[in-house]
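Notes on consecutive records. When two proteins share a document, each keeps its own sequence and its own token line. Never mix them. Below: protein one.
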Amino acid sequence: MARPLEEYEKQIGYSFRNGELLETALTHSSYANEHHCASYERLEFLGDSVLGFVTAEFLFRQFGHLPEGQMTKARAELVCERSLCGFSRQLQVGKFLRLSHGELATGGRERPSILADVFESTVAAIYLDSGSLEEAKKFILRFIRPAAKEQSRHGFRDYKTQLQEIVQQNPGERLEYTVVKETGPDHDKHFVVEVHLNSNVIGRGGGRSKKDAEMQAAREALELMGY
């Protein structure tokens, strides 16, 4: 590889021995289909597992006071689409993505689901290229550590439960979560969910599972309500 991605390597703080691995980590399926090359989907699958393990270990070691249920909620929030998209934006991932012309025209460089996926594929690429967990862990904790610190300041929250408790203070009010969009193949689904208070939309969220999307919709509702 002619090293066109040196800037991205500087952003992530890791220099690749196998440059093609990094190219693949940044290649969307739309580009791969047009150019007959590999996309980041397989790397994303592996990166999801590495990210989940490193985050779980970090919470286990650093937050010994948290019971299992709260650690599960904390991990879900730290690795949700919204969080990973934010991490990728810090890295300016959009500049380096390889997308088809159609995907570019529809805003693919800023699409939260793509940015979240590429954070995971980058994790996997670092893990495979380095041949050990340590380099991937160093990269992950650069983002997870400050995010967990920020979360712990406000308490690790279950946004759906918090929203339900607030709504229940007014008898007769009813919450409902509705899937308004579902895209992607079975192994890489993306859901968009709206949360309704009676007949009014009060929040909208996206995620790779309905549960994640519901949690983000509840989070947006709470933010709009001033909580």
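Protein two starts on the next line and is unrelated to protein one.
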Amino acid sequence: MNKSILKTNTSRRNFLGGTAATVALTAGVGTPWIAQAASNVKIGLIHPATGWAAYPAAQLRYGAQMAIADINAAGGIKSMGGAQLEALLGDSQTKPEIGAAEVEKMNEAGVHAIQGCYQSAVGLAASAAAAKYNIPFSVDVGVSDKLVQRGLPNVFRMADGYGRIARDAATNLGEINRLAGSPAKTVIIVHEESEFGTGTAKLMTAALKEHSIEVIDTIKHANPTRNFDNVALRIKSAKPDIVMPINYPGEYVLLAKTLRQQRVDFMASYSVLGGGFNFKFVDDLPQIAENMIDVNHWYNPSSASGQAMRAKTEADGNYFTFEVYCAYMSVMFLADGFERAGSTDKEAVNAALAGSTIDVDFMPYGKTEMVNGQNMGSRAVAIQAQKGDVQIIAPSEYASAKAVFPRT
């Protein structure tokens, strides 16, 4: 797959209703699958389309369907005679058991690969269900390293996981703090309750110790949470130098607003995989967002294809969040597997994916190298809201600005 699949003139209408055939399924309702052309390559998209994570799910579907439309417009899977990609849509409703049930329904519908699932907990259940049928499974967003540590030959992840992200986040913070004269000594972590937040918080606590930064409290919250007043009071009383959110979009934004409203004073907000840190957050709450830092998936703003994808996304009236390009990359990866396998044979496709060297230049990545299903060329970056924009502040090879630390 090459950069030519990025078509800036592909309209939203075309890729949602034209070249990319789509079949929707609502879990538990019994909606029938609609028969499609046998020559199509069916990719199941499983996301929490309803429930508290509906916005990031919509962003993921947008990115995946953009990729499907672009690949189809560029000739489809050429080694299979131009076979077109077709999306089958499943709704996990944020629940692992429903995500697994969607896999069963998609298998019955003859799906050739599956992409999902935003939440690590849902991804673990859905990919295990897919493993029963050896269905190629590409993780678009899901940071738990358990996803690729179970020895399942059908599960792959192009983006990085929380193990290396935690180490990079601690290293970046240690360096930023050192350059500022090492003023930060203490951290409070506020994390969501599932595998994503709990696992990342545990890893960050250990990683920060190596940089002489102590986690003095860890606060867990439910999904969803509608009030952070007590959490703000707890942070205010403890007086940490740094507040470290690890949570999904709704709670990320609400926590940031609450800390501002309660006038909680701290040196910096340094989140890790903060689901709500994006261009929308910076636009909606510029005074709160200013100088906040996050370590997360991000695009490569210096690449022409990254710029083109952002321009198209914004022209379609959407924010260019990490869900969009992570989902796009995930579909590219699957399509490359079908292209090199020359068929939808599951073993052949899984073997092709395991040996992938696909070039994804719109992400700040090195060479793609799959080791036990994990792309070792991927990495997260540290980003900061500065003057109404988002800048990469680490690592240095992708940095577009210097860190503002402590915040002003």
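For the record: The chain has two domains: 3-159+301-375, 162-296+381-398.
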